[in-house]
Amino acid sequence: MKLLTQIPIQEQKQQIDYNSKVVLFGSCFAENIGEKFNHFKFKTLQNPFGILFHPKAIETLITNAVEGEYYSEDSVFYHNEQWHCYDAHSKLSETSKESLLNTLNEGLKSTRRHLAEASHVIITLGTAWVYDLIETNATVANCHKVPQKQFNKKLLTIPAILKSLQSIVETIQSVNKNATTVFTVSPVRHIKDGFVENTQSKSHLISAIHQFLKINNQQSVYFPSYEIMLDELRDYRFYKTDMIHPNDLAVDYIWEKFNSVWITSKAQNTMDAVDTIQKGLAHKPFNKSSDAHTKFLENLKYKQDLLKNQFPHITF
Predict the structure, then answer these.
(1) Which of 64, 192, 222, 286 is most buried (CB neighbours < 10 A)?
(2) Residue 114 burial by CB count (10 A; 0-12/13-18/19+): exposed, middle or buried?
(3) Mean pLDDT, residues 298-307 taken together
(4) Handedness of CA 137, 27, 59, 108 (dihedral sign)
């Protein structure tokens, strides 16, 4: 008896292992998957400019990074006792203008360096709704609680999203022709835009991605995070209490699906070893000075050293 509709997904050819270098951009779901990669100690760079919800924001970051378009004093502004940049998430905002500019420009350098070396670039698109700053007509990544009257809100058309995706991949390929780009659509519902508007937004993203894949299907693929959430996990028990974001169980489920097709079977043994160490490090002993706990720590250190010898980038 089948009690759910399963999304068919195929094992990928260019899989991820512990020699791979993965770069992740996009919505808060990119953060969820990025945390899984970090937990298992893969080589990753995750959202150097913070969460970016729409394709134009990701395009701006990648273009500026690759072309060396660094930020200057004209690129930032002061609001609510902090310095902000419209191209970055508010978590990068600083009380010091110089600190913010340094963070932004170091982020651009890191992004370019990692893109040039990446084996995989995972891009999670969250919404097709964007805000254009009226003063400059530029599409912003984040409004930073600036009054809404200073922006025009619009829905990106499918052709506009397609053009943005083409620019993203072409820019990546200009510094790295071997990177595989994995597109996915975030299962997080942006219902602040409206229920119908959220559906319209997601449909524009999905349509544009699949149009793009017809053009560039050699090194770009789609992973159905959105579809797995809606069809396999179509129950509110898989959402957080806000009924918008997938909960931990849902994230774990989608990660397992991703893992099954994108991560090599050989890497699974290393992931198990890393997970054992992570759980050991999180363990709280009843008696820290006991012989049993001392031996436990010695064994844990031995396991860490074994992994470190095999994969020097792994640190705990």
Answers:
(1) 64
(2) buried
(3) 93
(4) positive
